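Sample pair:
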Amino acid sequence: MKISLCMIVKNEEENIVNCLDCAMKVVDEAIVVDTGSTDKTVDLLNKYSNENKCVKIIHHRWENNFSKARNISMQYATGDWIIILDADERLFADRIKLDSIINNTMEQAFIIPIYNLMNNDNIEVTSVMVRLFKNNKPYYHGAIHEQLNIDNKNCVGKVMESNICKIYHYGYYKSVYDKKNKEKRNMDIIKKQIKIEPNNPFHWYNKGVMEMIGGNYETAIDDFLKCNKLTNKRRYSFHDNLILELIKCMMALKNYNQIISLVNDISKDIYIGKIPDIYYYCGIAYANIEQHDLAIEHFKKAINIGEYEKGVSRYGTGSFLAKIQWSKVLLLQNKKNESIDKLKEAVLDNINVQNVGIEELIVLLKEEKREYEIKRLEQIINNKNTHDTYLDSEFFKNKDNVKNNITTLVENGNLEAAKELILGYEKVVNDDIDIYSIKGVIAMMEGKMDDAEKIFKEGISKDENYFDLLYNIAYLYQYNKQNKLAIAYYEKSLYNTSDKISIDKINDSLNSLYKSN
């Protein structure tokens, strides 16, 4: 079976190459529709298509309609199956297992689990969007959050197992989202859709999501409730997410009793009642009104359900996040040792790939004079991070892609976005020596030379022969006119590289410094 990747892009110079590099390991061809990029996207695409004849570039004017652009991309697809991606997403799949499924299925379409990497250690798993489908007269309708039809029928896909195929999505990093002005663009399209179809619940749901992103929680709640009313008790694909977003808005407004009342009602639903998030948030609500036993009861319910990949869920609510909140309640009950044990259980949970909670655990262990446990804890965590985890360690296996993203952001001057991605990366990968070098360069670009020096030196203390660190700190000293230090580090860097271009650059710098001395 042949698989075609279909994409629409605009101003994606930071993402497009890494996205295609990852996806082309899975698909047989790619059709990329550029809708009017003004940055380097087109140049990068042209270069990519010249080197890879399986990548076709189409230019089409943006008409404020995602469906039109998607449908154009699919017109050129020659594969038996089509995969849809955005540039800020990365596709990972076991092609052999994937072929086995699509070669032996009666299904028309599949939902691929998407891991949305947010800020602040937050990963949301969504399994609601059809991304893989048969090339059987497919077409999209709807100007935004477009819906798919196949063979003139509304398409409802089967959820693909994440160990076979998954997507990582980076677009919800706040600085990236703000930079692209997605909020205004999307809201303008949604409001136009509401004018055309004021009784379509999906449009009000989308408006509620955008209001929520903008921090307008009360307006978002009104929109979600209007959406729910317009459904006339009919179940839609976005229904579970509607409820979860409603709960999050209530949480932001500290309407804890409303959350408890809502969860007690919706937990009876045969679908929503299986989502661990509702019990997780209800447990937090109970904790905030000091009903500690009920809080723990709900955290236990979330953990008993476990992680959820059949719809929408915040990653960890069925495991380590619920345990962390349980630990906080135990602390409020003055059960400090029990709290430490529960927090340790959360940190060491194999699903907790980012070791969320480790800082708080170390503080508590020190307070209780249990420092002897800290070294052992670090050993266990390091051992855990070298083995496959719930995510099959895709982040580790493909960490070079993530570092390439960071480097690209730095090279394009998008330092805030780069720093946010570094924060997420460091939660997963401990003490990557490359990151010291990148962070030091960022500090230099920001004019923070003292900070840059400290970062470079910290990295060198961990690997005194690492070329990039030695070269960068030498350049820093040369910039600061500390010539003796610059010479010393350039000379040391010279002994730690065999790259001819680097050697020539270092020799040029040394000759200049020798003359100035």
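The chain has three domains: 3-173, 176-384, 394-516.
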